[in-house]
Write a structure and sequence with these properties.
Number of helices: 6
CATH topology: Ribosomal Protein L13p, Chain: A
Radius of gyration: 16 Å
Number of domains: 1
CATH architecture: Alpha-Beta Complex
C-alpha cells in the first residue's frame, strides 16, 4: 500500500477522543489519514467505569433479531475506527467516502516507518490525569487475545 498522500498520526500517549475528533475533521475535509500505535491511545477516567461502559456496549442485543444488533470489536485498531466512525455522518455519501480514507494500525507498520508524523499538542498524561487506561489494556479486559488472525501486531 502506498502511503505517500496520507497524513500519519501517532496515537501513542494521545487522548483518544481528542485525536479521534481531529482525525474525523481531517477525513471530512477530504484528506487520507493513517493512525499508528492505536493500541497506546489513552482513555481518561476510572478504569472500572470505562470497562463496564464498553462491556455494556458489547452485550447490547436486539430482542427480535440479534443479528441486527450493533457490533463493537474488541481489537484496539477496530475500536479506534468505530469511535471515529461515530464522529462521521457515515450513512451519507460524503461520510462513507471519508470513512474509507481512514487506515488504523495497532503498531507501527514497516511501510510507515520513515514518514513524518503529524504532531498533536499534549502535556504529560501523568501530570494531568490520575486515572486512565490505554486502548490495548481495555481490549485485553474485554476479551481480546493477541494472535488470533491479527495481521498487524
Amino acid at each position: 500500500m502506498d502511503f505517500n498522500d496520507f497524513n500519519v498520526y501517532n496515537a501513542k500517549d494521545q487522548i483518544l477522543g481528542r485525536l479521534a475528533s481531529r482525525v474525523a475533521k481531517e477525513l471530512l475535509s477530504g484528506k487520507k489519514v493513517a493512525v499508528v500505535n492505536a493500541r497506546y491511545a489513552v482513555i481518561t477516567g476510572s478504569k472500572g467505569a470505562i470497562v463496564s461502559k464498553y462491556r455494556t456496549r458489547l452485550n447490547l442485543q436486539e430482542k427480535e433479531n440479534p443479528e441486527h444488533s450493533p457490533y463493537w470489536s474488541r481489537r484496539p485498531d477496530m475500536l479506534f475506527k468505530r469511535i471515529v466512525r461515530g464522529m462521521l455522518p457515515y450513512r451519507k455519501p460524503h461520510g462513507k467516502s471519508a470513512y474509507k480514507r481512514l487506515r488504523v494500525f495497532q503498531l507501527m507498520p514497516e511501510g510507515l516507518k520513515g514518514f513524518k508524523q503529524e504532531a498533536t499538542e499534549s502535556k504529560d498524561l501523568k501530570d494531568i490525569y490520575v486515572n486512565h487506561i490505554t486502548l490495548g489494556e481495555l481490549s485485553k479486559l474485554l476479551g481480546y487475545e493477541k494472535g488470533n488472525g491479527d495481521i498487524n501486531g
